[in-house]
Amino acid sequence: MDIIELLKSAFMGLVEGITEWLPVSSTGHMILVDEFVKMNVSETFWNMFLVVIQLGAILAVCVLFFHELNPFSPSKGKEGRRDTWVLWGKIVLGCIPAAAIGLPLNDWMEEHFYNAPVVALALIVYGVLFIVIENWRASKREEMAVAGSFGSRAVVSGGRPAGAHFAAPAAATAEDEDDDENLDFGSIATLEDLSWKTALGIGCFQVLSLVPGTSRSGSTIIGGLLLGCTRSVASKFTFFLAIPVMFGASALKLVKYFIKGGTFGANEVAILGVGCVVAFVVSLIAIKWLMGFVRRHDFKCFGVYRIILGVVVLAYFFVLEPMLGL
Questions:
Q1: How do residues 27-38 score in pLDDT, each as one tens digit?
Q2: Who has the most CB within 10 Å: 98, 117, 133, 256?
Q3: Who's near 160: CB < 8 A, 6+ residues apart?
Q4: Domain range spanning residue 200?
Q5: Residue 253 to residues 51, 270, 322: CA-CA distances in angstroms?
């Protein structure tokens, strides 16, 4: 068993655990990392590893939100159990578009789109979209505040009526006012407010993530924001949509791996196991951090990061690499 390969796998798990939940594209980052930290494994195993390592990340969601997702929780009454089943129904509905389009196109997409230039362009395009959408939301919020037209259902995180944060208390500090400007708001402030139609709409945005570099979480969060969700609701529903998607994608990859003659020796088990465990632990931290972050900040910083990374990637592959003959 090669300790170097295990360290590489741990690093891949670190990258996966961070980028799976932040709207910056985990698969895109993994493809880029592979350009510099190549694992000594077969191409068949690597293609499977890229997807199955996400199981570690998704288990973190199951652990963190176990009570909320468990319809059999003894602390839930009849209504609570019913609401949980309804939530699962919306999750399944939201996964249908990606499954319907992704399953038949999976192999074709991998063959034609899993490369650095596509990842770089997707990073830039969706980085710009994040900035544009957040600026649009901010201007819309200001217009509604001036007109005094916030509806009773438009709220910010913390349960205050949306618009209440526009008039800062006299005793508020400058720092408080700066934070207040980025408070979470939207007409869909809880998962119970999320309609079946909106769930399906967010699921349609998830289809965009079939292009590597787009980011599954990024595309669904953008969809949620455009459809009226608060950042918190958009992020949480994105996490929940990942459960059936990632389990399904991992199962499909494993089946294809074995069909192509792939096997699991001690080395393969160790590499995949280390990657999944690290992804799980890091995901626990990343998810908790992101849920706190979105209550007070917008997603523009992720948009800027995506644009910078995309430009760096293009510069490396189209300028530096040819220049140095790498």
A1: 778 777 877 888
A2: 98
A3: none
A4: 3-324
A5: 7, 18, 34
